[in-house]
Amino acid sequence: MAVIGALVVAVLLVIIGSLEWRLQQLMRGKRAADLEEVILSLGQETDKSRRKIIEMIEAIQDLDSRVKRSIRRVETVRFTPFRGDGGNQSFATCFLDDTGNGVVISSLYSRDKVGIYAKPVRELKSSYELTREEREAINRAARAEHLTAPNDESTN
User: Fold this and answer.
1) Are the C-beta atoms of 82 and 108 separated by less than 8 Å?
2) What confidence tier does 31 reach under pLDDT thresholds 50, 70, 90?
3) Using an 8 Å Cβ cutoff, are 125 and 118 in contact?
4) Nearest CA to 73 among 100, 53, 55, 46?
5) What are the pLDDT digits (tens) for 75-95?
6) Three-state SS across the chain?
7) This prediction's pTM
8) pLDDT top residue among 28 and 139
9) Residue 61 has what pLDDT?
10) Residue 100: left if φ>0, alpha if ψ -120 to 50, beta else—which one?
11) What are the residue ranges spanned by the domains of the chain?
């Protein structure tokens, strides 16, 4: 029985020694008060990081809202309004944001004069009567994807 007791004590001493070695590795010469300061400092840094992340999320949401309201879809339709006169010098250009709001600007060219017209567009419709070409410019702009030019020096 004494042998079993001694064996149990020896095993427990090995376990305690192992735990003490692990604790020393964790603390690496620091006192418990130093570790508490480190933990508190990490907690404060975590709180600062959370606040900064919230600020960044709010800024991204604001930018996203602004981008949706900025003109990003532009399409032009060229045409000849009068037979044999103009050679496609007339045009209708539509400027839309992502919500379908913007303006369509038309220019009618003839030998005698040039007329320029602007009509507001709200949700892809205008309170003014639209020509076929103006409707086509609005429809094309509504379908247009926002693309960026390739970063290729050979296109310069």
Assistant:
1) no
2) low
3) no
4) 100
5) 999 998 877 665 788 999 999
6) CHHHHHHHHHHHHHHHHHHHHHHHHHHCCCCHHHHHHHHHHHHHHHHHHHHHHHHHHHHHHHHHHHHHCCCCEEEEEEECCECCECCCCEEEEEEECCCCCEEEEEEEECCCCEEEEEEEEECCECCCCCCHHHHHHHHHHHHCCCCCCCCCHHHC
7) 0.60
8) 139
9) 94
10) left
11) 34-68, 73-143
pLDDT of 50 above 60:
yes
Measured CA to CA, the distance from residue 40 to residue 155 in angstroms comes to 56
Q: Which residue has the tokens 């539509």?
A: 94
Question: How many residues make up the chain in this entry?
Answer: 156
pLDDT digits (tens, 9 = 90+) for 102-134: 999 999 988 888 899 999 999 999 999 999 999
- CB-CB contact of 141 with 126 (8 Å): no
Distance of CA 138 to the CA centre of its chain: 25
> For position 36, what pLDDT does the model report?
77
CA dihedral 44, 47, 48, 54 (to 10 degrees): 180
